[in-house]
UniProtKB/TrEMBL annotation:
PANTHER family in UniProt: BLR3518 PROTEIN
Coiled coil location: none
Protein name in UniProt: Sulfur reduction protein DsrE
Source domain of life: Bacteria
One Pfam entry name: DsrE
Amino acid sequence: MRTSFYSLLAVFFFISIAGQAQKKYPFIKSGGSMFDVPEAEPIADKQMKYKVLYEISKGADKPDSVNATLDKLARLVNLHLSAGIPRQNLEVVAIVHFLGTPLILSDEAYQKKFGMPNPNTALINELTANGVKIYICGQSLYMRKMEKEPRNPNIKVTLSAMLLMTTLQSKGYVMVIP
């Protein structure tokens, strides 16, 4: 009797899981989970050129976790590409500054500072391999005394976040501040 109760409970558990929407990682596999939303109205313009400037100024909740704002950047890419925007029509530039600065460290430098490899490395590498340009604010590097720290080679340095933001917004980039 007890065995059949547990069997029945297991069946209901698996049915409930099967009925729930599943997160997926369609293009960026290291982060940026999303859900299919079949009832969503199609609003993406597949002919339009999307120019996005994305700000990462928040730090991770804990040193051993991926920066949540970086993960949302991956979601932005996954959502646009899943909506049918051709990759060549999606231009994304991210600027890292303020409390987000440590995410740019190489695994070795992060290990030295936090006692573990950088949990953001795989996501940074995958984003940049998929055309996302990531910059670190030079002012933040110097203010945080990290200018000499080894960093991920996929991240470029700019004079300042403010200069990059005003320049790209003047060129038609839409600012996203998660």
